[in-house]
Design a protein that fits this description.
heterodimer, A: alpha+beta, Aldehyde Oxidoreductase, domain 4, 3 domains, seven-stranded mixed sheet, five-stranded mixed sheet, 27 strands, disordered N terminus, B: alpha+beta, Ubiquitin-like (UB roll), DNA polymerase, domain 1, 5 helices, globular
């Protein structure tokens, strides 16, 4: 293959555009140099920029922006994989740049398992568009029709002559091309994919094993102060008075500042408290210990989570509200041969990412720069505007790597704290959350009660189904008057029922939020899948059939369920159109049978051992889990966890596997040990000694199967693994011991 | 002033004796590879070696390290070519990556004393290091791979 090397000068004279400064394909921002070397401004005036995601450098390297953040799920690699594939870039030439908060990227809220499923088509379009510009530039240069050239491996090749030219040489000219009409773009055939569907290692791997990463806590600026904040332990409590004199005597402490009062609707405003600012983290923490604060704890100091669970039980008995219905459950229960009932409880939970929330803010030159481990950089801007009344464009948000997120870091209260203190001090301020702050003062997964009742006919088939649920709503964080589960929460594994029963009634009850309520990996699917899958197992035992058969029989005919038509429930389908992501009972069945075909769930086991299964659709993906346990002398051992996921087209199979491994262990942590208690309005647990998460000695062998990897549009990956885990364990314990545990965590019954 | 040997480089820091090594490394010496996770020695994210022993640097006062050698993740091999780093990369171990400095520093001390660790040996040694992302199965595999590579390297010499 011949290669012609074009100098920059040749290109400029050829194109007749030297010095014109004309930019097409992206709007330009004034670029400013970051004081931190790892934070490159990706939206700048590069002459070689093809669109807001892609720039080609003269040295033939390709800069691709990942507009979503990286917290372990792998999308900082998956997003560029998709673009690079359509672009025909050489992965070895690709540099991935973390995108700043910028609405032109579209939604950057990295949660809801959306990074691939919501952007797959768009990212291919962006890659194809940039590739087309490069091809057109080469065609112009060779004066041949564009059909006679094609891009491959960071070059464009002339079909007639076999000559080629590098992307780097073409970049300048390509950037002057008009943006191609989207309708005219050609896309690669899946059989020609170079990177989509391949287990590309994550782009930060080398830095992660050499200690060269930059997380939120690692941000450092000249003259920066570190803040540690003592926040009111009870929500809506306020600072009555405080004495800072001892804190100010701690060497390194330079300032003590009262935080603003918490508004009635908490949103992402800071919590009331007192901040100690020092020249280093240790001094700030020591100074904080020396503070003397008198609190007005307010009315929430009477809150007790044990009492609240009783209240939720009562509200479901006395005053439930209909969410969806089909047929007539009274008639159904009257005609039933057997009626079974059960009540399930899942406690409050905390996210506990390994890196607690961390944020640095700095006002200078009429802007405020923010470096932080945030899941949603645009929310940082929006909520900073709400707090400061400054236009949101004032805030330039540079997401760091996140040391885990799990939903906690979608809430931007901690960046608002840093912004507030940076404004007060006129210096760069890094707010450092301790582990205790993280466990006690986050946005909690809400504790929930769910009651289930089923009528079975003489053949053991479920004909009638009555389910009720109550928990404080995430809506309460955005409107303090919200006091019952919202539609989007009920559509997370409760009212989006897969099963085909003749008579169904679904109801909800009220519950008041005693703490800030947030979303945690898989959200309400956690409790709603636990109740659903546990109860199906109970029904199977009652009917004396296998749980697999009970599930398959109950799913009924292969069909796409429309919950609005069947139950009158407006299911939002995780923000996806049913046409693109139907609710398919066939895929539901397939993901279960694919797993059970490969897992010995019906093997003969010694006494005290058992298998349990569960299957669930969430984030438009389907996951089944089979768990083998042993219960011996009051001790529970999780021996093996097998799972299968049908997430439609997979971009990076190794990251799908790793997310499933992680989801199994996240599910295991909450099933075995996860519990936040609230007494006198305060969170009782404080660190890993009393809010334990799974350690290596508790981690079983995990087997992951990927099912139907190419047939459907991409679904979610980060969250869907979690919901089936807890019920699979409870079901396995029943199989092993005959004991049914309906309340999490399981360490209240067995040592783990 | 306290004199400290970090990764075989001498430093002088102005720190009180009771400041944990973690914050001396991170805030005074700008060695950010060692991470903060819990502050009470429960999670292992801050693991470093002091005279070859694994310690939780978040609860270890710098005063005790005055005449000692401190080793951190930055000192393992900046090129990432130590067998343990290669094994970590080959197995695509990290998810978020935050705990991995501590995991690697803990695993190194296991492999120094045990050239062929069993699952139980690994569990016993590594259960002080939490990974919330759930990379344990891959850490276990990487430790075994590293053990083999280190044994082979030793055999070559």
């Amino acid at each position: 293959m011949n290669t012609s090397k074009l100098s920059r000068r040749e290109f400029l004279s050829y194109a007749g555009i030297a010095g014109s400064g004309l930019l097409l394909g992206c709007s330009s921002l004034t670029s400013s140099k970051s004081p931190l070397p790892k934070f490159i401004e990706p939206v700048d005036n590069d002459p070689q920029r093809l669109n807001i995601f892609v720039a080609i450098k003269p040295d033939n390297t390709v800069e691709i922006v990942s507009h979503r953040v990286e917290m372990g799920q792998g999308s900082k690699t998956g997003i560029p994989q998709i673009i690079a594939d359509e672009l025909e870039a050489d992965w070895n030439q690709v540099n991935v740049i973390q995108g700043l908060g910028d609405k032109r990227y579209g939604n950057q809220n990295t949660d809801g398992s959306t990074s691939i499923r919501k952007f797959y088509d768009k990212l291919r379009e962006i890659g194809a568009s940039a590739r087309t510009m490069l091809e057109q530039a080469a065609a112009d240069y060779w004066k041949v029709p564009v059909e006679q050239v094609y891009a491959k491996n960071n070059r464009v090749i002339n079909k007639n002559t076999d000559k080629s030219v590098t992307f780097g040489d073409l970049a300048e000219l390509a950037s002057k091309q008009a943006l191609p009409d989207v309708k005219t773009l050609r896309y690669k055939s899946p059989k020609d994919f170079n990177y989509i569907g391949k287990p590309v290692p994550v782009v930060d791997l080398h830095d992660m094993v050499t200690g060269n990463t930059t997380f939120g806590i690692d941000v450092d600026l000249p003259n920066m102060l570190v803040a540690s904040i003592e926040r009111c332990p009870v929500i809506h409590g306020q600072v009555k008075s405080f004495d800072a004199s001892a804190a100010l005597k701690v060497p390194g402490v330079v300032d003590v500042i009262q935080m603003p009062a918490t508004p009635e609707t908490v949103l992402f405003f800071p919590l009331a408290g007192v901040a100690v600012l020092a020249t280093n983290t240790w001094a700030a923490m020591q100074g904080r210990k020396a503070l003397s604060i008198e609190w007005d704890l307010g009315e929430n100091q009477s809150y007790d989570s044990d009492e609240a669970f009783k209240a939720m039980h009562k509200t479901l008995e006395k005053s439930p509200e209909v969410v969806g219905k089909k047929g007539d459950i009274s008639k159904g229960f009257n005609a039933a041969k057997k009626v079974i009932e059960a009540e399930y409880k899942v406690p409050y939970l905390a996210h506990a990412p390994m890196e607690p929330p961390m944020a640095t803010a700095w006002f200078h030159d009429d802007i405020c720069e923010i470096w932080a481990c945030v899941q949603n950089p645009q929310a940082v801007m929006e909520h900073a505007e709400k707090m400061t009344k400054l236009p949101k464009e004032t805030f330039k948000v540079q997401p760091t790597l996140l040391g885990g997120g799990f939903g906690r870091k979608s809430k931007t209260d901690f960046t608002n704290e840093a912004i507030f203190l940076a404004d007060k001090t006129k210096k760069p301020v890094k707010v450092v959350w301790s582990r205790e702050d993280d466990i006690q003062l986050g946005y909690f997964h809400a504790g929930a009660v769910q009651t289930m009742k089923a009528g079975l006919d003489d053949k053991g088939k479920i004909t009638t189904w009555h389910q009720k649920t109550a928990y404080p709503s995430i809506g309460s964080t955005f409107n303090h008057q919200a006091n019952s589960p919202a539609g989007f929460e009920l559509g997370l594994g409760f009212a989006d029922l897969a099963y085909d029963f003749d008579n169904v009634l679904m109801e909800k009850g009220q519950a008041k939020a005693p703490v800030r309520i947030g979303w945690m990996r898989s959200v309400c699917n956690i409790q709603q899948s636990f109740a659903l899958n546990s109860f199906l197992d109970e029904a199977a035992h009652e009917a004396n059939i296998t749980t697999e058969n009970m599930i398959l029989n109950s799913l009924g005919e292969n069909r796409n369920v429309n919950h609005e038509q069947v139950y009158g429930f407006k299911f939002n389908n995780y923000g996806e159109k049913l046409k693109r992501h139907p609710y398919s009972t066939e895929r539901y069945k397939n993901v279960l049978t694919a797993l059970t075909a490969k897992t010995p769930i019906n093997e003969k086991l010694p006494k005290g051992q058992g298998w349990g299964i569960a299957v669930h659709r969430s984030f438009v993906s389907y996951v089944s889990v089979a768990t083998k346990v042993e219960v011996k002398d009051g001790h529970l051992t999780i021996k093996e966890v097998h799972c299968a996921i049908d997430c439609g087209l997979g971009v990076n199979p190794d990251r799908i596997k790793s997310q499933m491994e992680g989801a199994m262990l996240f599910g295991l942590s909450l099933a075995l040990m996860g519990k936040i208690d609230i007494k006198s309005g305060k969170v009782v647990q404080s660190n890993f000694h009393d809010y334990p998460v799974v350690r290596m000695n508790q981690a079983p062998e995990i087997v992951v199967h990927l099912v139907n990897e190419t047939e459907n549009a991409p679904g979610g990956v980060g969250e869907p693994g979690v919901p089936p885990v807890a019920p699979s364990i409870a079901n396995a314990i029943f199989a092993a011991t005959g004991k049914r545990y309906r309340e999490l965590p399981l360490n209240q019954y067995l040592s783990v | 002033m306290i004199k400290l040997n970090v990764n075989n480089e001498m430093h002088e820091v102005d720190a009180p004796d009771d400041m944990p090594i973690l914050w001396v490394l991170r805030d005074l010496l700008n060695r950010k590879g060692t991470k903060f996770g819990c502050g009470i020695g429960q999670c292992g994210a801050c693991t470093v070696h002091v005279n070859g022993q694994p310690v939780r640097s978040c609860i270890t006062p710098v005063g005790i390290a005055k005449n000692a050698k401190i080793a951190t993740i930055e000192g393992v091999d900046p090129k990432g070519e130590h067998p343990i780093q290669i094994a970590w990369k080959d197995n695509n171990v990290p998810q978020c990556g935050y705990c991995q400095s501590g995991q690697i520093m803990s695993a190194l001390t296991l492999l120094e004393n045990n050239t062929n660790p069993s699952d139980e040996d690994i569990n016993n040694h590594m259960s002080g290091n939490i990974c919330r992302c759930g990379t344990y199965p891959r850490i276990k595999k990487a430790i075994k791979d590293a053990a083999v590579a280190m044994a082979n390297n030793a055999g070559d010499k």
